Amino acid sequence: MNQGFVFRKDGFTGAEQELLVNETLFHNANGYFGVRGNFEERYPSDCPTVRGQYVNGFYNFSDMKQPEKHYGFPEQKQTMVNTFDTQTMVLTLEGEQVDLFQGTVLEFSRILDMKKGTTVRRFVWESPKGRQAEICITRMASFQLLPLFTIEYQITPLNFSGTAVMESVHSGDVSNYFNPKDSRVAGEKIIHLRVADLESTEEGFSLIRSETLRSGLDIASVVVHKVYAETGELGCPNGYVRERRIGDKDIVETLTIPVEERKAVTIVKYTVTCDSIRYENVKEAARKWMITSVDKPLNYWYQCQADYLEKFWEKAKIEITGDEELNLSLHYNLYQLLQSVGKDEYCNIGAKGLSGEGYEGHYFWDTEMYIVPFFSLTQPEVARNLLSYRHHILDRARANARVMGYPKGALYPWRTINGDECSGYYPSGSAQYHINGDIAYAVVQYYLITGDWNFIVSKGAEIVMETARMWYDLGNFYQGTFQLHDLTGPDEYSCVVNNNYYTNLTAQHNMAWAAQFYHMLKEQGQLAALEEKIGIEEAEVEGFEEAAEKMLLLYDEKLDINPQDDSFLSKKEWDFNQEKKTNGPIMQWNHLYRLYRYQVCKQADTVLAHMIFEDAQKLSTMKNSFDYYEKRTTHDSSLSRCIFGIVASKLGMKEKAYEYFDFSSKLDILDSQHNTKDGIHTANMGGTYMGIVYGFLGLRVKKRGFFFMPSIPEQWNSYQLRLQLKGSLIEVTVTKDSCRFQLLQGEQITIFVYGREYPAVSELTIALEEW
Amino acid sequence: MNQGFVFRKDGFTGAEQELLVNETLFHNANGYFGVRGNFEERYPSDCPTVRGQYVNGFYNFSDMKQPEKHYGFPEQKQTMVNTFDTQTMVLTLEGEQVDLFQGTVLEFSRILDMKKGTTVRRFVWESPKGRQAEICITRMASFQLLPLFTIEYQITPLNFSGTAVMESVHSGDVSNYFNPKDSRVAGEKIIHLRVADLESTEEGFSLIRSETLRSGLDIASVVVHKVYAETGELGCPNGYVRERRIGDKDIVETLTIPVEERKAVTIVKYTVTCDSIRYENVKEAARKWMITSVDKPLNYWYQCQADYLEKFWEKAKIEITGDEELNLSLHYNLYQLLQSVGKDEYCNIGAKGLSGEGYEGHYFWDTEMYIVPFFSLTQPEVARNLLSYRHHILDRARANARVMGYPKGALYPWRTINGDECSGYYPSGSAQYHINGDIAYAVVQYYLITGDWNFIVSKGAEIVMETARMWYDLGNFYQGTFQLHDLTGPDEYSCVVNNNYYTNLTAQHNMAWAAQFYHMLKEQGQLAALEEKIGIEEAEVEGFEEAAEKMLLLYDEKLDINPQDDSFLSKKEWDFNQEKKTNGPIMQWNHLYRLYRYQVCKQADTVLAHMIFEDAQKLSTMKNSFDYYEKRTTHDSSLSRCIFGIVASKLGMKEKAYEYFDFSSKLDILDSQHNTKDGIHTANMGGTYMGIVYGFLGLRVKKRGFFFMPSIPEQWNSYQLRLQLKGSLIEVTVTKDSCRFQLLQGEQITIFVYGREYPAVSELTIALEEW
User: Fold this and answer.
1) Hey, are the CB atoms on A485 and B65 less than 8 Å from each other?
2) How confident is the model at residue B357 (pLDDT cuts 50, 70, 90)?
3) A425–B70: do the CB atoms touch at under 8 Å?
4) How far is B392 from chain A (nearest CA, A)?
5) How close A64 comes to chain B (CA, Å)?
6) Is B492 a catalytic residue?
7) Which of residues 8-37 of B touch A (CB under 8 A)?
8) Which regions of B398-460 does DSSP assign to beta strands (E)?
9) Burial class (CB in 10 A: 0-12, 13-18, 19+), B480
10) DSSP string, B352-408
11) What does the pLDDT look like over A42-74, one tens digit per residue?
12) Which pLDDT score, from 0 to 100, does residue B643 have?
């Protein structure tokens, strides 16, 4: 039963917003590259579109002008580059160009099959002159062969025979999307690439190599077409005629093919892309991978894709019964995470994955706090890659720390591709130093989930110690407490504050674990390399321990809540009635510094702290804080609701938990944030996963082990999912009255359910409890 | 004895920095326009220069790109425009071009005569071929006829006769200075003007009209030359030959003049400039004023200039005996204020006056807190003009308040020319809301000093009430106090803080006086107009009174100081030993947000509050605060030391007071801040004046009257100055042991000396007291 794995939209309206959103929703990606789901034949010229193909981690520099120049304010940023256009294919049937905005669309559907790993756009079109044809276009970004993108374009004339002319474009004449009104995409049209070579290779492949104008990178794409009739591959020039025109910036291939009524003709367009971050000679690499690609029939690659996904879903299995919509949404979200996530240490996972240009392809804390949990629990090798990227950019984070005035340690950039800070607005960008704590938290969680000590020895401990050093230098012992000043927590409507509760907790955890790893490495005689590399010393570690112990964690006794920061409670109350909350983020019509003066939150902040450090405060404090902040949160960030949902579960607010989960799960599918056109919200997608595993199932990973608090929403019959805990694959099934843990692979493990310890579990069924 | 009024520098080194600084120090201005003291003949092309002529209040717009677009962040600024070049005059003697960088400079001096109101550059030059000539160039920016600038260029061949060829330039081909490294001047070369007309008028004048590219303004300049031998004016073409070449952007006049050994020939170049802010038809206006100008001999205008200055110095008299250097510096500073200050409501006084392009010609709080006191006490009509400018831009301040989220009232821009905010960096720009309080404070002080109730009725009360409204909307009653959050006080190294002591005091004063004026207007039946215009109501005024009364004014009992803001004392201490304080502002090598995290001040903040509101706290608190903040202040702002000096006087620290005063007084003359090349520091100059009047003489203007605490530095024999108090001209003479107050004009007035009241004083001598 694949029903929960097929995402489908039927019907064609031609509405601009719908087209844009579908470009995102039906994009193809494999973590290495992504192609927006644009129409091969293009839209009418006045119809907005973000037409793009991106490579993860491949960037150009562009100016980020500061209105005033100040020391250390970045004046250059990286931008994920639209690399090539190889998806454009313009079909003309008997002299009439296929165009859904002309003639009549008789049938139309778009399908993403998450077990096949392909998208399909199928339509029946009647031309202005009455010719009817069925077109079925299948696209794939291969997980097996990461540089490979395929378009299988099938044409079936329904009421005529004659000639089909396909003009297939391979173009380097591309630029990034430009909308001067939107701060979340690049603010001005900038040329990023220069076409350096256009050629036909000795094999007859079409090849373009482009160079970035400022970042010193280059990238090559190779395109090959094959044409099939129902009887098999057609030869050229006997079966069809091919013409190639090499222009200044593009290569256009025109395929003239005889077609017969009711007989399908198929054009397969292979694109292989290789960039200079991964390959020394991009032209050679692309050629080589293309030879490999066309050596096998397309079905071979389809099969590889299905095999890859079978393995993926086997580990990532998650099924809800009794709520088909949510079941599908959840699969959609996890599939998008897989499409988006980088597969090597040169890249990570963008806030919008590879599905659009929002946030310019940058990587944020979203990775560690929202996405690493899914991968740590289901595909640890991917999580390890994500964290290895942070180790890969550690030198840049060290350099950043020096600029910011810290003599030792590392400070990770708030948003980046190559490791350098790209945040142009410090208060809700670079000031979010908690990214250091977040990365350390993710390293520790990854270690606690997987037990991968080897990663800690080789990379993790270094990350955790270098980040800890920054906290220690930053903070101040004052009146018996260790304080952190002038930083911004997750809530971007309260910036540059003192003793943000979330920040102080993550910093405390960071320093405590730096000390912990130090002692563990020392005990095991594995400290020498790190001592030599970063000069870590006992006295420093004692400092970490003291600072962690004395960390100021704000608590208001009267309200029994944790104040978000030291002045939050003294701020004015926001008038939620006056603000039309439905019209998008309030920052779009309020000066940011006005918002900072109010008790209004963009997103979960203290509530997020309560989720990840549930033992740092009393349950009553969590409950009161939840109520307090929920009333004051706009959820203008897509990172907010999923967290509120998880903590609602923890607090036994089942209906609320479900509502938050429901909203988060469908956020992109329903375009609830009104910006899915710019790309998917990968953090929210990871948050959806956490909504089940940390929310309904109540998992918390602590030093002592794995803690579960299973529950189930009223709306569901059951849900089942698989987790990889310290190498063991566990299947958990929660029904309306019980929770069953079953070991599928690996050694028996100890778990805690409702606070009770169950050692060496291989199978365990427990009745659900209410609280 | 004019000695204290002649500022002179002898000798020519050709050193770049010296040339640049002297361009500033010897600039000519009259409040309407300013001309940098560039060499008429130019420097060698590789020698940096800021060659400019500026008109006060005349601006173009330019982009101020934000790295991220956010609601209400200004993306356009005004820039004071370099208008024309009419100072360029290239002299060739017998085929050898006069050039101080060639041949030999035998004598060289530059002189500013502050009673004549002219600058002179005089030199004796020997050409590479041995020709010697004495050149004496006198320049004047006429106070009598504001559009008029004159250059009197006298040539005396010392050892030859022959031909002098003067190529005199009238050019619209000008641009502003561009140094990409300096945040205090514009960051990129931008063309601001387009030459629209070049012509010879019917009178034979050379005329150029230019239009700003974006601000919709235009400006005309008219140039006329006259040539004189010792025997009188020379005719053309009999006495000399004139050729005019009209180019695309400039008009060059070549004067070929026979010269005789030891006989002086003089070329007088008149420039008249008129802009469209003041004149409807700028060409006609400039022509008309030129007709007026050339109708009189130059000596007539020189005499007008001297008369004007005689009146100025009569009121502004200030003499120190026993310290010639300081006496001269002080005169220099006051003269610069007169040169810089706008003479109509369309303009104000720039941070750099009209002497350079630093801060792009913008007006800041410098006006109200540092410069208005001098004018209020000596030339009240100028002070009234400065404050009328604030009334003139009140509608812009209202619009700004709306953008910032305030439904009522006005918020003045931190830096502006036309009234719109030009601050590109909010934390140490727009966040300095205290500018509202500063303007209200200056209005009240002006009223208390002059008794000009009419100004309050027509403009002042409206300003004070509209600014008060902003505070009331901004603040928050919390736990019995009225609090002001997320604002920046004067100290730009502690930004966006809560309850900054200075800000809260000025806001308190602002709201209290809004209520006060309301009651006074009501009592006198003069409220109706204002009620109608701004809808001020009794209930609102009661709100002001309550907020003022409950204003939170931070006090630390243990230290007996006023904390600068609510978190200042909990911040880290700055390591002054580690920082090389002599190399310029620490912000040049520290990230600003790092500085915010330390107890380090750029300038006087709480100490300034203590100066202007000395009754708001105990004397011990002032003393302890002074000591506390002095240790933590870098004085990286030129607005700092003068204030520390004044409060040092108040606290009886005579030596310290003298040192601060001495440093401030000579700041530009000695280029102590290393940036006088960008222009003079007008605020500091006003601060110097306050250093005597508020410092040594101890004047405080309060609701109850004029309070004096006379003292004299050890280094001086005596000092004497004049003050205009409620229309009465008072001369105050302080010797080593006494202080004499003498009424020169007007009615007897009541004063307080050392806290004791002396009613109806016409003459009063009091022995100096120590404290």
Assistant:
1) no
2) very high
3) yes
4) 25
5) 5
6) yes
7) none
8) none
9) exposed
10) TTTS--GGGG-B-THIIIIIHHHHHHH-HHHHHHHHHHHHHTHHHHHHHHHHTT-SS
11) 999 989 999 999 999 999 999 998 999 999 999
12) 98
